[in-house]
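Continuing from yesterday's entry. The apo prediction looked reasonable, so today I'm repeating it with flavin mononucleotide included to see how the binding region is handled. Same sequence as before; SMILES copied from the compound registry.
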Amino acid sequence: MTIERRKADHIRINLDEDVGFDRLTVGFENYRFIHQALPELDLNSIDLTTQLFGKALKAPVLISSMTGGTEQAQQINVNLAQAAQQYGVAMGLGSQRAGIARPETADTFKVRHIAPDILLFANVGAVQFNYGFDVEHCCEAVEMIQADALILHLNPLQEAVQPEGDVNFAGLAQKIEAVCKRLPVPVIAKEVGWGISEQAARMLAEAGVSAIDVAGSGGTSWSQVEMFRAPDDLHRRVAAAFRDWGIPTIESIQMVKRAAPHLPIIASGGIRSGIDIAKAIALGASIGGMAGPFLKAATISAEAVAETLEETIRVLRIAMFAAGAGDIAALQQTPLVVVG
Ligand SMILES: Cc1cc2nc3c(=O)[nH]c(=O)nc-3n(C[C@H](O)[C@H](O)[C@H](O)COP(=O)(O)O)c2cc1C
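Holo prediction written out below.
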């Protein structure tokens, strides 16, 4: 199976099938802000701006890594980038292995000409370091899209339930460390929907990553995506067994905070509103990312992506207002009440 075919399958399945977790949730419903009837703030003066890796964001929002490698993926990336530039938020491209293996597909990842000012992340699977990738390939991925940082995604479970998966995850920490030392841009370690544990965060911090994206469970379930792609019943049943596996996003944020208190945390995995982003930041994250909700919008138009961003940011602004937090620094200090 070609990488292009797999990417096309991923988009189709994410759009058409129920790829959510079953009983497991992200955990945000267990926390609430203390409502402030007298916030002593002007809604229109709430300051959502922040910085990551020295680059300014107009709001603490990331369009999480998704795609590239096919014609449809290119249109999706163009729509995402146009809206990201308009709203001054960060964006990640999907895994660039296809663009490196087949340079003729590299254009499908390139959005810098559309989004000259945004914080832009390249993306490579860390497991590829056991399958021929090295720091040169990482540099190539960064240069291909003129990225500000490189995401190394960690997806052991996704690879394990795929018939064609790359499953040798042995000895990766050392290889990640070598890349962190030699790459001229910051390295972000990221899961794809099962969360980062305290132990993993400690190893990643020691390896020298500059940030961690928890990509916890509760949103898009990649074992479900792989279940819908499975070639036979056996593979389907094996993938289905993991529908509720993983560390819920809210728990993973707190685990990473304990293990690596100095590292910026990107909260993602099942974030579905500006209130979720506000809660993630109050618990220690720097910004919040979403993938699934932006994919659907991006298949329609750049305007649809912009509307999703507008709604997310408006809800975030109102949540900060009603919780009495005038800016992101204040939001990070705002207590949450545990419900129940
Ligand atoms: C269609 C699609 C493709 C994705 N491809 C990648 C990828 O190439 N690299 C990566 O790090 N994460 C990838 N992800 C994972 C997302 O970045 C994100 O971590 C995950 O979907 C959880 O976020 P969500 O619940 O908001 O969708 C992909 C997600 C979707 C929906």
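Comparison notes:
- The mean pLDDT is 96.
- Residues 10-11, 14, 64-67, 94-95, 123, 151, 153, 190, 192-193, 215, 219-220, 268-271, 290-292, 295 surround flavin mononucleotide (CB under 6 Å).
Will overlay with the apo model tomorrow.
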